[in-house]
Amino acid sequence: MCPRRCCRPVLSRLGSAVGLTAALLPAPGLADAADAQDALPDVASAPRRMEIPVERVAGSITVITREEIERRQWRTLVDVLKFVPGVNVVQNGGPGKKTSIFTRGTNSNHTKVLLDGIDISDPSTPTGAVDLAHLLTENLERIEVMRGPMSTLYGSEAVGGIINLVTRRGHGKPGIAVWGEAGGYNSAQQETSLYGSHRFGDRKADWSIGYSTLHTGGFHVLADDSSGQERDGYDNSTLSGRLTFEPTETLELNFVGRYIDTENEIDLSGDSPDDISDTQQVFLRSQASREFWNGNWKSRLGLSYTDHHRETKGVFHGSFDGSRLAVDWLNDFYIGEHHVVTLGAETKRDSIDSSSPSSGFGADARSSAALIQEQFSYGNWFGTASGRLQDHEDFGSALTYRAASGYVHPQFGTRVHASIGTSFKAPSLDQLYGAYPDPVFPFFGNPDLEPEKSQGLEFGIEQPFWGDRIRAGVTYFQNRIRSLIQFKFQPLPDSSTLENIARAETKGFESFVLLQLSDRFYARADWTYLSAKDEENGQDLMLRPKNTFDVRVEGRPLRDATVTLGVRYVGAREDRGDVTLSGYTIVDLAANYQLNRYFKLFARIDNLFDREYQDPDGYEQEGFNFFAGLRGAY
C-alpha cells in the first residue's frame, strides 16, 4: 500500500473536482454564505421519539452534528461509526464493501437503523440487517447513536441500540452549496445541495435537496491472493431531499426521501474474476404533525416505504428484493409541567422475493405494536418508563419494557444515569421461510423460530472539574441474550436449518475524558472495554475487541483554520477458524481553511503511517490516502 502509488491520480481528479465546484457557483459578493445551518441545537430525538436536550437523556448517547461531519471530513456513515464509543465496525475491504456493526458486543443485526423515522433494515438479507456501506453523510443534519436495549420504542432489532439519521432541514434564504474532492486509489466525490425556507403569510415552507457521487478505483482486498492485484472499485450515486410545509401554526407536513444506486466489484476468490453487485435502495416517508388543546396534545401520523434491490452477476448470480410498508401513529400528552405521556401504534408488512439459478422463494409477514411511555422531569431529576406489546402473525407476541432515570447535581454538575430494559429480535423472513434446495448443501428456514430476547442494564456517572475545563465519565453496561438463532448443520440427505439454541452475555464499560486545552484547542479520549462471551462454551464472540481507544485533538490554530488529529486503536479479537487478529492503530489528520465567506479549502490524510491490517481476517484495509478539495456556498 504505497502512498505514492495510491495517490498518483490525485492532482488530475482534484483539478476536475475544483473546476466543477467553481463553475456551479455564482460570483461572490451577492449574498451571505449559507453556513448558518451548521449551528444546530444540542438535541436528540432517538431516546424518546421526540426532540429533547441531550443533557436530559437518561442513557448513553452520542450525537454527531453536521458541523462535526464537515470539520472531520467523514464521507460515509461507516467513517462516523468507527469513532463512536461502544460500536465496532467491520468492513470487508474499502468503501462499499460489506459492513457489519457490533454495538456493545451484540450481533450485527441487533442495531436498529432509522432514517427520519424510516426503518431501513433490509428484509431480503439472511438476517434482516441493513448493510451500512452505501450510506453517505451527504445531506444529513445529525447522527444519533443511542446504546442499550431500545425495543420498547422501536421494536425488533434494537437489542444493542439505535442509529438515528436525520436529514438536513432547510434554513434561511435559498442557497446552494457545492464541494468536490479527489484522493488516492483513483477516488473522487462531489456533492451539490440546495436549501432554503420561505414564508407565505402565516404559512412556511423549507426544503433541502442533495445529490452526491462517490467513485473509487479501490484496491485489491483479498489478503491471501498473491496471483492477482486487480482493484475492487465502487460507485455510489445518492439523491436525497426533505420538504417541510406548515400551512397553519398547529399543522406541519414533512416529506423525506433518499435514493441510492451503487455498483460494487466483489472478490469471491483469488483465482476468479470480480463479481459485480448492483444495489438500488429507496426510502420514503410522509408525516403529518398536529397540535391540539393549546399544544398539550401533539399527534404525529407517518407512512413509510422502503425498497431494496440487490443483484449479483458473475460466478454467483442472484437477485434479491425486499420491501416494507409501515404506518405509525404517536401521541404526546403534556400533563402539567412535569409529565409527558406518549401513546403509539404501529403496523408494517415486510416482503421478500429472491431468485438464483438453483432456488427462489417469496414470503411476507405482518407485525403490529402498541406502546406507552411516561416521561417525567422534576428540576434536575428526570426519567422515563415505557412498555411495548409487539404481535407478529407467525411467532406471536413479545412484551418489552424499559425504565431509565437521571440526575444532575445543581452545584457540582455531577450527572448520574441508570436504565434497565428488555429487547427482542424477530426472525427474518429468510430465517423463517428461506428455501435453498442445493444438491450439495441444502438449507431451509424454520417457521417455528422464536424471537431472540435480551435484558440489559447500565449505570453511568459524569463529573466536570476545574470550571468545566475537564469532564470525565464512565458507564457500566451488561446485556444477556437468549434464544439466539444458530445454524444447525445436517448431513445429507437431510437439510440444514436454524434453531433457537444459543446464549450470550456482553458487558463492559465506556469511559471518556474531555480536556479544554486552551481557548482554541480541546482533546477527547474514549476507552471501551468489552467482554462478549458465548455462554454455551465460554469462548469470546468473534470480531469483538476487548479494548478500543480513540483520542482526538481539535482546534483552531488560525482564525479561519481548523485542524483535527485522530488516533484510533482496536485491540486483538477472535475470528473464524481459531484465528486471533492482532490489534492495530490508525492515525488520521484533517484540516480546513476558510478562504472567504464563500469558499473553503480542505484536505485530510487517512491512515497517516500506512498501517497494514486485516479486519476481518483475509480482507485488507485501506492504506495511506490523501484527499483534497474545495467547498463553496452561496
3D structure, described in words:
The chain has 634 residues and is mainly beta. The protein has a single domain, classed as TonB-dependent receptor, beta-barrel domain (Maltoporin, Chain A). The protein has a 22-stranded antiparallel beta barrel. A five-stranded mixed beta sheet has the order 3-8-9-6-7. The chain has a two-stranded antiparallel sheet with strand order 1-2. Strand 11 (187-200) and strand 12 (203-216) form a beta hairpin.
Features:
single chain; disordered N terminus; five-stranded mixed β-sheet; globular; Maltoporin, Chain A; 6 helices; about 625 residues; 22-stranded antiparallel beta barrel; mainly beta
Task: Write a short abstract of this structure.
The chain has a single domain, classed as TonB-dependent receptor, beta-barrel domain (Maltoporin, Chain A, Beta Barrel), CATH 2.40.170. It has 634 residues and is mainly β. It has six helices and 35 strands.
CATH topology, which one?
Maltoporin, Chain A
Q: Bin the helical content.
A: under 10%
CATH class group: Mainly Beta
- Mind describing the biggest β-sheet? 22 strands, antiparallel, barrel
- What is the CATH homology-level superfamily? TonB-dependent receptor, beta-barrel domain
Cα separation of the termini:
39 Å
- Radius of gyration based on Cα positions: 24 Å
Number of domains: 1
Low-confidence stretches: 1-41
Beta-strand residue fraction: over 45%
Helices, by number, come to 6
Number-wise, the strands total 35
- The name of the CATH architecture is Beta Barrel
